[in-house]
Amino acid sequence: MLGGWTVTRNDVAPIHTFTASEDGWLVNSHVIEFSSQLFVIDAQYTLPNGREVVRYAWGLRKPMTRLIVTHYHPDHILGAAAFDVPLYALESVAEKIGAVGDRVAQEERQKVGGDIPANARRPDRRIAEGVEILDGVGLELQRLKGAETEDALTIALPDAGAIIVQDLVYNQAHPFLGERRFDSWRAALRAYQALPYEVVLPGHGVPGRKALYGEMLRYLDVAEEALTAARAPSEFRQRMIDRFPNYGGLKVLDHQLRFLFPEMAHE
Question: Which residues pair with 137 in a beta bridge?
């Protein structure tokens, strides 16, 4: 099974969320359904999962007009080749994909095989911060700096009381900590927690509400302490599993070990 769908209903633009299975890192693609068209947010890790998002979107009987990638990590960009739609990203994100995307694709293809493309698709169009109105629905696009990664995009729908924060928040899944941005990530979580959006759509795991921010803050505190105390990658991994036994995303937990412990051979 590739994953499952959740629909966040509201009065202006329903949001359809595909959450991949464990093999797909529990990553989310969100399909924003406007009255005349669809925006897809993030492209999945594998081509089969990307094709599943395309299949579902076609079933909504509205054209996909944009695929937006929020940041350059492999689980959000490598499925983009499955989409025949313009690919949008922030300028800084597009530059990062151009610089490292092919290397990232080749590394993941070596691990997974043909379900990963040989090269990362480059964004065709640039997207800017600010407010956009589409079919009478307002979107607020904001550049998020220094959380999971250096640059990412968040998308709020004020009239729906919802915000797509992607990897600022994981829901019941181990997050990627490889860039070690604990302090700035916590600051971003507190800033977004103060925003007036009750519905929070994360980058991994099913959609939730504002409580997700507090859960992420707790996870980061535990992870930073465990990282300081651990003498080896396997010890850190086991500490996190012991503290969060019900969390998924073990593939992400494993993926990050070489970034967190670059001085040690992967155990």
Answer: 134
pLDDT mean for each 10 residues of the chain (267 residues)? 96 98 98 98 98 98 98 98 98 98 98 97 97 98 98 98 98 98 98 98 98 98 98 97 98 97 70
Q: Which residues pair with 18 in a beta bridge?
A: 5, 29
| DSSP code per residue over 126-185 | E--SEEEEETTEEEEEEEEESSSSSEEEEEEEGGGTEEEEEEEEESSBPPP-TT--HHHH
Is 51 within 8 Å of 121 (Cβ atoms)?
no
**Which amino acid is located at 266 in the chain?**
H
**Which residues, in sequence order, are bridge partners of residue 200?**
163, 208
- CATH number assigned to the domain with residue range 3-260, chosen from the 4 options 3.40.50.11030, 3.40.50.2300, 3.90.580.10, 3.60.15.10: 3.60.15.10
**Token pair for 69:** 């990638």
- For the whole model, what pTM was predicted? 0.97
Report the b/e string of 241-261 with b at 16+ CB within 10 A: eeebeebbbbbbbebbbeebb
Alpha helices by DSSP H, 60-181: 74-77, 91-112
